[in-house]
Design a protein that fits this description.
The structure is a homodimer of 345-residue chains. With 345 residues, the first copy, chain A, is α+β, with helices and mostly antiparallel strands. The first copy, chain A, folds into two domains: 140 residues, 2-Layer Sandwich (60s Ribosomal Protein L30, Chain: A); 170 residues, PurM-like C-terminal domain (Phosphoribosyl-aminoimidazole Synthetase, Chain A, domain 2). Helix content of chain A is 35%, strand content 23%. A seven-stranded mixed sheet of chain A has the order 7-9-6-10-8-11-12. A four-stranded mixed sheet of chain A has the order 2-5-3-4. The longest helix of chain A has 18 residues. At the A-B interface, α1, β1, β2, β3 and β4 of A face α1, β1, β2, β3 and β4 of B.
Chain lengths: 345, 345
Amino acid sequence: MTKANDSTPKRTPIEEIGKVGLIDRLLTTVGTSLSDTVCFGEEAGHHWISSQKLLLEGIDFDLIYTPLKHLGYKAVLSVLGPIVAHNYTPCALSLNIGLSKRFCIEDVEELWSGVSAALQENKITNISLDLSSSLTGLTISLSSQGKQKTEVFVQTPKAQSGELLCITGNVGAAFMGLQLLEREKLLFNNNPEVQPQLEGYKFILQSYLSPQLNTSVGESFANNDILPSDGVFITNGLADAVKYLCKKSNLGAKVFLDKIPIASQTFEMAEELHMDAITAALNGGDDFQILYTVPLSKYETIKKELPQLDVIGHLTSDSGYACLVTPDGAEIELKAQGWSERAAD
Amino acid sequence: MTKANDSTPKRTPIEEIGKVGLIDRLLTTVGTSLSDTVCFGEEAGHHWISSQKLLLEGIDFDLIYTPLKHLGYKAVLSVLGPIVAHNYTPCALSLNIGLSKRFCIEDVEELWSGVSAALQENKITNISLDLSSSLTGLTISLSSQGKQKTEVFVQTPKAQSGELLCITGNVGAAFMGLQLLEREKLLFNNNPEVQPQLEGYKFILQSYLSPQLNTSVGESFANNDILPSDGVFITNGLADAVKYLCKKSNLGAKVFLDKIPIASQTFEMAEELHMDAITAALNGGDDFQILYTVPLSKYETIKKELPQLDVIGHLTSDSGYACLVTPDGAEIELKAQGWSERAAD
């Protein structure tokens, strides 16, 4: 009996079973079959929403330090996020994966294992999958649809001046996790003998590599007779989310610096890298938290019944002006994020 | 008064008005505003469908010979196609454009002018737009949602053996248009003094660069009491569409070679390039036609009342076996398309 060489992972070209063969194999794992579209409804008394996300290798993720399984999981959450934030329940997902020759069947299966884990956790069985050719690495395009009872839709109030701004958890951790991974990548590129130093930073690494989506807040709101007027999925920094909310509602906002939840590891990593934890929290990105606005009258209820929420400020009538208030009372206007790196190709 | 130099088109960096500024400007032209999602429904008595499309520069289009306006128009039709084919009415569209530094505001506006023309023609006002950074050229990700009356959904029969296969128009023309453009590109690359020779081939060039989507067939079916059991949008060649239909319905198909509509310019160009027009029709791609299956009993009605449809064959009970029948009665099994070029990056 010959002993298999376990140290070399198998790499099977996709051409061996073909594009349709691979799509079939992946869809079987989630109990569905080939389809060029997803169908949903009719469910009487429901409203619908659709969300879309495009993830490009080199811009949105780096496969040097991002395991494909984590990437698949995170990609699904990134398109479900806005649906959950708007208080809808995700029910269908379409995925198109663009692949260059570098990727083999095992890679796609690894990515898919993360995708299907996220689909199962969120009870989504209505799925469409397609694979495309790509000249340049991995491209992931997702869209998802969600539903909401029409009675909720009708009752949802418009955001008002004076309402509270709440977030579902700490911000800036994912960005500092990314900075740590980038530092170790740089060290490794300079000297491949160097072992990555990642100990003691599990929290910020997890925040970046396998974020969680808080899908239970909507239920907690309902249980406490709170109807948030709007929700924004925070992926491009807290400042961006607050400014977006102001623009949508034609209002202003005050965010209190000392109320923004920032994890201790975020501060530690920022100090180690000579960076600013506050900037990471405001402009870092990849937080996967939700920013809600709720009536001021619900302040006590939130403090008591929804301890997972942090009240960080409130809306004002000062249309379009969003600012950060420092502990000494100074106001600093929040700036919109610029572009992330666009390359001159 | 100084005379403006009209020969140099203006190229304004997107950074001048910023990402959100540009999104705002584009959305204003179609009377809508910034939104991270699209919402639709409730419409009592309707079913919903969602379609998604990913278009990558270098794989799905070549900007050397594809005007951005045409590309924008065609991109929208490519995501509406499957919705129309399934007998739904498109009602919402989300678009994400990935841009490298090479693209300026005027480019995006040019692309958008094609997008908005297609949206207006199809009466879609429910739109979400986002811009992303890209390391490598232009990436267009689209998703669209459509609706169908539940009574239609419930009545739609499953495809049956013996049913007719019909298509909405000729196939292979777009592929031959693409071959012509590729030939002229090659000649130009070898000698930039050479002027492109495109005269006399307007039909195949238009088929590739600005295809039309036949959105009126559904109504014609309804007016003649025909309920097609299924529709497939033909983008990857007729053979691919027929095989997909067989797979979905667990049936077989016979397509009669002399019934496939092929335009005379398609034959002419194929001859000029020493290619096979039949192969272009079967495997060419980009046809933007729809393949329908309708009951055999409706044959006379279709011939008389829906002359825009060509009956090209029928379904059989021979599960998974799709073949082409030549005029002398020989059967050639239809092959699935391979991958388009995946690059070893």
